[in-house]
Amino acid sequence: MTIRLMQHLKYRTLQLRAGALLVGASTLLAGCGLFDTDVKNVNAVTEDALNVTAATPLVNGLGGTLHLAVNGLIGVSGAASDELQWAGSREYWNLLDGGDIGDPVNEYSNGTYPYISQARWQGDYTVTKLEEFGANLTTRADLARAYIFAGTAYLFIGENYEDFIIASSRVESAVSIGPANMRITFDSAIAYFGKANALATTLANAELQRQALGLRARARFSRAVWGTLRAPRGFPANPLINDAGANADAAAALAVMSPSYRFRSTSTAQNNSGYFNTGFEMNQRLELRAGTPYVNGTFTRVADGIAGIKLADPVSGQPDATLAVAINECCRQSSTQFIGYTLTSAREMYLIQAEAALATANTAGFTTAINAARAIDGKPVWAGTPTAQAILIHERRVGLFMQGRRLHDHYRFNQPADKWLSQNAATRRPCFLPISFDERTQNKVLRDAQPTIAAQDRPEACKP
Q1: pTM for this one?
Q2: Does residue 19 surpass a pLDDT of 80?
Q3: How large is the angle between the packed helices 55-80 and 107-133, nearest 10 degrees?
Q4: Would you state the pLDDT for residue 307?
Q5: pLDDT at res. 6
Q6: Considering 91, 232, 282, 326, which has the largest number of Cβ atoms within 10 A of its Cβ?
């Protein structure tokens, strides 16, 4: 076939296609006006069309949404504590670093708020849908997973926020629950984890039992911490937690966990970018880095290997092995932007037990539990030096690094972060994240309920 003939056929084919398109368009215009928008979308799926086949995708979607929220909150909480420090050019990281935690306009806390709000609503919605499916569920473990994800959203709200808006509708505004009522977020988390544990027990699913029991122990412990910091507001004279429910859950969790067990939220390309990505901010953009008390290196980059670890184990005097593992996973450029977050672990259960023993002067119990936590990374046993409370604070500091718990410990042990400025409220009283500026601006019901509070006002506890 000649080139000319090929060109002719190609041109003729285009003519025929163009003609077909014109005929189709003429037929369409004959059936409706040029600006007629009353056209049915054959691909539209309404909520009432959801059936049991959607269960697993619903739960998987909830898990991805939750990770986006956790990713943001770990970064904001880390920057507000001594775990992370400002190293780049974005001023709002610097303000968090200095202890200005309650600013609703801060772009990172403001940008993170809708993600945890979405995770909370989506958790309740997903649980409701799967409970409606009931016995028709193909995989009943999906419901247990939904309980765990939904409970975790409530847990992170309780641990991180001064106040929050919890509504059943995603399209109608609502007033906040109020700072004094934030305890109910922990109650909701505990209830969800209880349902998850009951179902996991019925299914003989040991992994879901580990997750549910560990998270419920964390929630009960954090609920008790909440009580010491906010009711009344201040640095507690007796900061040690001895909560019967948390202790019982920790023991039950350890009965089904290995000593090195961790439940991790894993980053992927699909769930790693909310308003910002903590791993990207640290390891690629270099806006953040692990805090100066923890690591050596340049202002933006942690030194490689064990040389990068500054914080020493107070027993051995050597760079802390537990911290080294955490830094390797999260905070070196080789860690990449896809970093994971530990939600609960056997280590945390040992630390709960150790603190309860210390609170009741049970020296033998404390020694056993704290050394079980230390043994995970092969550290030498603690035998009385430094003090029991000092080694507890240290093991929590390195063992729960980048897990959203350090801010609580700054407050309850009255140990300000190294970068906090004296003019900021965090140096004088416990202060947590506010309802965001965007939410206050857009939520008419909240504005009407609190007409004297401007959208940019800090919560009462966070005012200088």
Answers
A1: 0.90
A2: no
A3: 150
A4: 94
A5: 38
A6: 282
Q: 121 and 149 in contact (C-beta within 8 Å)?
A: no
Residue 457 pLDDT greater than 90, yes or no: yes
Span 57-73, average pLDDT: 97
Q: Mention every residue, 6+ apart, whose C-beta is less than 8 A from residue 128.
A: none
Q: In this structure, are 210 and 61 located in the same domain?
A: yes
Residue 255 lies in a domain: no
Asked if residue 56 is part of any domain, the answer here is yes
Domain end marker among 240, 256, 273:
240
Beta bridge partners of 263: 344
Residues 309 and 196 in one domain: no
Cβ partners under 8 Å of residue 320, min gap 6: 309, 311, 312, 313, 379, 394, 398
Rounded to 5°, angle at Cα 417 from 414 and 419: 145
Query: What is the biggest distance separating any 2 CA atoms in the chain, rounded to whole angstroms?
Result: 97
| Structural domain that includes position 225 | 51-240
pLDDT 10s digits, 98-154: 999 999 999 999 999 999 999 999 999 999 999 999 999 999 999 999 999 999 999
CB 423 within 8 A of CB 464: yes
Domain shared by 63 and 210, yes or no = yes
Same domain for 86 and 164, yes or no, is yes
Query: What pLDDT does 237 receive?
Result: 95
Give alpha helix (H) positions in 43-140: 55-80, 91-97, 107-133
- DSSP-assigned letters across all residues of 239-306: -----HHHHHHHHHHHHHS-TT-EEEEPP-TTTS-SS--HHHHHHTS-SEEE-TTTB-BSSSSBPSGG
Residue 42, φ and ψ in degrees, nearest 5: -70, -15
Q: Which residues contact 343 (CB under 8 A, 6 or more apart)?
A: 70, 152, 211, 214, 215, 218, 263, 264, 265, 403
Q: For residue 61, how far is the Cα from the chain centroid?
A: 16
Asked if residue 278 has pLDDT above 50, the reply is yes
> How many structural domains are present in the chain?
2
Boundary (domain end) residue, out of 196, 223, 240: 240
Does a structural domain hold residue 130?
yes
Examine the domain organization and report whether 218 and 126 are in the same domain: yes
As a whole number of angstroms, the distance between CA 101 and CA 425 comes to 8
| Same-domain pairing of 215 and 335 | no
Per the listing, tokens 């995603």 go with 170
Do 57 and 202 lie in one domain? The reply is yes
- Read off the pLDDT band of 4 (50, 70, 90): very low
Digit-coded pLDDT (tens) for 219-238: 999 999 999 999 889 999 99
> What's the Rg (C-alpha) of the chain?
26
Co-location of 62 and 188 in the same domain: yes
List, for residues 289-313, the tens digit of each pLDDT value.
999 999 999 888 899 899 999 999 9
Question: CATH code at 131?
Answer: 1.25.40
